[in-house]
TrEMBL record:
Organism superkingdom: Bacteria
Alphabetized UniProt keyword annotations: Hydrolase, Membrane, Metal-binding, Transmembrane, Transmembrane helix
Entry keyword annotation includes Transferase: no
Phosphoprotein in keyword set: no
Record-annotated Calcineurin-like phosphoesterase domain positions: 54-225
Entry protein name: Metallophosphoesterase
UniProt xrefs under PANTHER family: PHOSPHODIESTERASE YAEI, TRANSMEMBRANE PROTEIN WITH METALLOPHOSPHOESTERASE DOMAIN-RELATED
InterPro entries referenced in this protein's UniProt entry, alphabetically: Calcineurin-like_PHP, Metallo-depent_PP-like, Metallophosphoesterase_sf
TM region(s), chain numbering: 12-33
Pfam families, alphabetized: Metallophos
């Protein structure tokens, strides 16, 4: 009888260890795939201001990560999408890493295939404050157009697009960064298709900016898809919403205005991405029928 009990205990010990190891291996696989695998998320935005199909590729929150040597995997996947323009929506670097080599090299290679537009995230702003230097000249020398509370008009095919870059939250009220508010007040007066790069989505999604600003399409990042995606539930944590947030990824429309929120490419946090594959966003701007 004692032997049978010992055998059962031994079996339970073995099974519990197998289960434990299976969970550990599964988590490791999730982490690996989230760090080094890439997927393309595709969206379509229809507007009467668009004359023919325009393809926009969005890259966000790289945080100095490299997918393959010199980001060759990332570059190849972007190239295969044949973009008309490429938009980088902030946190492409880390605030506490002085080298800009990863970002500069990526911009150089991408600008050979399409015009690149670069807006600041909180890490770019913190970097400039910490190192007491401007990154603008280096990013522009690499081949991108930097938009920091400013916009530029460009013609793609027969469509005029006004591309803007907002550096903070896109607040509708004149609080926070006054320069951003004044820029957006002027920017929304344009009659062209307005494509705004705004790294932090909270002002647009939580505080009615998307509903009230007269902007056709906003591209955002910052939330990293909730960092950890819980199966059947979604993102675990947002910097602005806390645990189990509503807004971590996807497409949102308010009052005829659209925001696309990227899960991003890297992390920048102590906590790794888990069950949260890095993504390239591909958007087709289509004319209305």
């Amino acid at each position: 009888m004692i032997r049978k009990i010992r055998k059962k205990k031994n079996k339970l010990w073995i099974y519990s260890r197998i289960l434990y190891l299976t969970v550990i291996v599964g988590v490791c696989i999730w982490i690996y795939l989230s760090q080094y695998q890439l997927v393309v998320e595709k969206y379509t935005v229809i507007s009467p201001k668009i004359q023919e199909t325009i393809r926009v590729v969005q890259l966000s929150d790289l945080h100095n990560r490299s997918f393959g040597k010199d980001n060759e995997k990332l570059i190849k996947m972007v190239e295969e999408l044949t973009p008309d323009i490429i938009c980088m929506t902030g946190d492409m670097l880390n605030r506490n890493e002085e080298s800009l080599d990863v970002v500069e090299n990526l911009v150089k290679q991408l600008s050979d295939m399409a015009p690149v537009y670069f807006s600041y995230g909180n890490h770019e702003e913190d970097y400039e404050d910490y190192y007491q230097t401007s990154i603008r000249d280096k990013i522009e020398k690499a081949g991108a157009t930097v938009l920091d509370n400013e916009s530029i008009e460009t013609v793609i095919g027969n469509t005029m697009i006004n591309i803007g870059g907002a550096s903070q939250y896109g607040m509708i009220e004149p609080r926070g960064d006054g320069d951003e508010y004044q820029f957006l007040k002027q920017y929304e007066e344009s009659d062209d298709f307005k494509l705004l790069l705004c790294h932090i989505p909270a002002g647009m999604l939580l505080w009615r900016g998307l509903e009230l600003w007269n902007v056709d399409l906003v591209l955002s990042g910052h939330e990293h898809g909730g960092q950890i995606i819980v199966p059947g539930i979604g993102g675990l944590y947002s910097q602005d919403e806390g645990f189990f947030p509503e807004y971590t990824e996807g497409i949102f429309t308010e009052n005829g205005h659209t925001l696309i929120l990227s899960r991003g490419l890297g992390s920048g946090n102590i906590v790794p991405r888990i069950n949260n594959t890095s993504e390239i966003v591909c958007i087709n701007l289509e004319p209305s029928a």
